[in-house]
Design goal:
alpha/beta; single chain; 6 strands; six-stranded mixed sheet
């Protein structure tokens, strides 16, 4: 009886030990749950930077339309206001004092040719008509004499507002005379861009050709618009200058020969 009881106790102990061991094993091999990744706050998408808006280019100046007539008026100061709005303003300039030289003689001849144009009379021309007229402006003083100091100042002002190096160089280096045509008075050109301008440098012109050159220049202003800053050129004017220069040379040769044979 005792041996059987001991045997049963041993079996019970073995079963208990087995259960204990099995439980520990299960606990040891229990799967470990993977830790969930930490939740992160969503990062807002960067706001796209605004691309710089390119500045719109300044509108190109409208071409200077041709005119139908020409008048002239005395210019007494740089800022002399113009009573009417003309289609064109042509400045008659000399970049030196009056001397006994060829440039001064050409300037006097140029002024006389311009003065053969009708003088501006506000009572005879309507505002609408003025927009189709070119106004020649000749520097004078209040005593009725040509004002060369004013003429030189105006020449320097044009050199300051000129857009091309070619015109600036001519106005700085040459005595002239010059004809410079713009759609606005000189005092209102500062700050304007791409102003159409037509100019003529008469430094190399033959004095005898001045009156005809003025007539050719007037016809150019009346025949086609001016859209850029450009120097006036004309085949007829070039041929005329060449022929007159040749004639001057022939006269010089003739006079020299006549003096030599006497």
């Amino acid at each position: 009886m005792t041996a059987r009881f001991l045997k049963l106790c041993s079996i019970a102990l073995l079963i208990g030990a087995f259960i204990a061991v099995t439980g520990c094993a299960k606990q040891a091999v229990a799967p470990v749950r993977a830790s969930e990744p930490p939740q992160t706050m969503p990062v807002p998408e960067p706001t796209p930077a605004h691309e710089p808006v390119a500045a719109e280019p300044a509108p190109a100046a409208e071409p200077m339309p041709p005119v139908r007539a020409h008048v002239w008026e005395e210019l007494y100061s740089e800022g002399q206001p113009v009573a009417r709005e003309f289609g064109m303003y042509t400045y008659v300039l000399l970049n030196q004092d009056l001397k006994r030289d060829e440039a001064s003689q050409k300037f006097l001849e140029l002024v006389e040719a311009i003065r053969s144009t009708p003088h501006y009379d506000s009572g005879q021309v309507s505002t609408e008509d003025c927009r189709q007229i070119n106004l020649f402006l000749v520097p004078y003083d209040m005593g009725g004499k040509l004002n060369l100091e004013l003429s030189k100042r105006l020449t320097r002002k044009f050199a300051m507002v000129a857009r091309t190096e070619k015109l600036r160089g001519k106005l700085a280096a040459n005595p002239g005379p010059f004809l410079i045509t713009t759609p606005y008075p000189l005092y209102s050109l500062t700050g304007r861009h791409d102003v159409p301008t037509l100019y003529l440098d008469l430094t190399s012109a033959n004095t005898a050709a001045i009156r005809e050159i003025v007539a050719i220049y007037k016809r150019r202003l009346s025949s086609a618009p001016v859209s850029t800053e450009q120097q006036f050129t004309s085949v007829r004017m070039s041929v005329l200058n060449t022929l007159l220069n040749m004639d001057d040379c022939i006269s010089i040769v003739k006079n020299s020969y006549a003096a030599w044979i006497e």
